[in-house]
Amino acid sequence: MNNTPNSSRITISIFGKRNAGKSSLLNAIAGQEVSIVSSVAGTTTDPVKKAMELIPVGPVLFIDTAGIDDDGFLGVLRVNRSLEVTRRTHIAIYVMDIEDIDESPLMNMINIFKKYKIPYILVFNKIDKVNSSYIDAVKEKYQEAVFVSSLNKVNIDLLKKVLIRKIEHIREEGLALVGDLVPYNGKVMLVISIDDETPKGRIILPQVQVLRDCLDHGIMCYVVRDEELESALKDMEDIDLVITDSKIFRRVDRIVPVSIPLTSFSILFARQKGELDEFVKGVNAIEDLPEGANVLIAENCTHNTSHVDIGRAIIPSLLESKTGKKFIFHFQTGYNFKEDLSKYNLVIHCGGCMVNGKEIESRIKICREQGIPITNYGILLAYLNGILDRAIKIFN
Questions:
Q1: Beta bridge partners of 13
Q2: Coil, helix or strand for 96?
Q3: Which of 138, 175, 268, 376 has its CA at 20 to 30 Å from residue 348's CA atom?
Q4: Is the domain covering 187-268 a CATH 3.30.450.20 domain?
Q5: Does domain 6-170 have CATH number 3.40.50.300?
Q6: Residue 334, CB half-sphere, CA atoms under 13 Å: how many?
Q7: Chain segment 116-157, per-residue pLDDT in tens
Q8: Is 349 helix (H, G, I), strand (E, B) or coil?
Q9: Among candidates 166, 117, 116, 107, which has minimal Cα distance to 142?
Q10: 273-390 in CATH: which number?
Q11: 262 forms bridges with which residues in the sheet?
Q12: Where in the chain is the domain with CATH 3.40.50.11420?
């Protein structure tokens, strides 16, 4: 991987009515034709992403969305897709055509920004079409707004400076994956299962990110398959932590001495991107699930499935075996996480390596507000294998 994953970038989403100049603004910021620009209303139909470096804050991801005033059957679908983007947005830009000042949709979006605690920037575009006295009058009312012309590249650098200040204000280093758990020059062993689900010729994103976090913090990292784990432990001394794929938790637990802390990739991401306590609380609700309960399994990535798929095969089988009950399993992939979860008794979420922490936080918030317990693959598999206390002990 040569580029920063989108899940690790600050996400800046651009909202506004149709023909407000959202796409032209993104093009002006990026300095290239990222989005199609047209005078036809509703040209942007699906969110358009542009990853770039915003100096000096580093890698960011811009998302250009469809107009929030779109209408008709397809228009409503496009609006809903735009609104879903807010859940993974760190900073919002609301663009308004200075000749079409409409406060109603603006206030609706501000309420959504407040719901998800998203700082926003109000931008008036197309100032090249009006005179200076008109601009001054608008400035008097909207004193915090930025006034630009994306067509003539006026004040684009000013907008970037405002963005940078916002990012620097909200940016937190956040929790490391491993760096705050293991000392400098410590030793970590990664146990990776190679099976039919493993992509040929590479390791998957969570493993790459954990490996990089170890390197960033000066931690020595050893990578082995579970088949060689026992031999590797005999060859290496003073291992500070073993991190395993969740699907082989039970086998690895039997091999790793109790004196060595053990956890999983998924649990590490649960702690970094979500709320570990909320996921542990959610797994405790399993004992009270009724026969025939509706269980939602939410995965962020899409992939072909097989008989060893962790979300669609292993977890349902283990869950029913553990409880002695039959459940109805539902599956959602990608960003298709619905706001209405009233039909479900439990939500089981993947590690979330493909989305940012903002999206995971938003999903936890949705579940909490509706009283639906939520847990995570790693936490659940540790619980089902009877080793949850051991798997989370290192975080206490």
A1: 63, 92
A2: strand
A3: 175
A4: no
A5: yes
A6: 7
A7: 888 999 999 999 999 999 999 999 999 999 999 999 999 999
A8: strand
A9: 107
A10: 3.40.50.11410
A11: 242
A12: 187-268
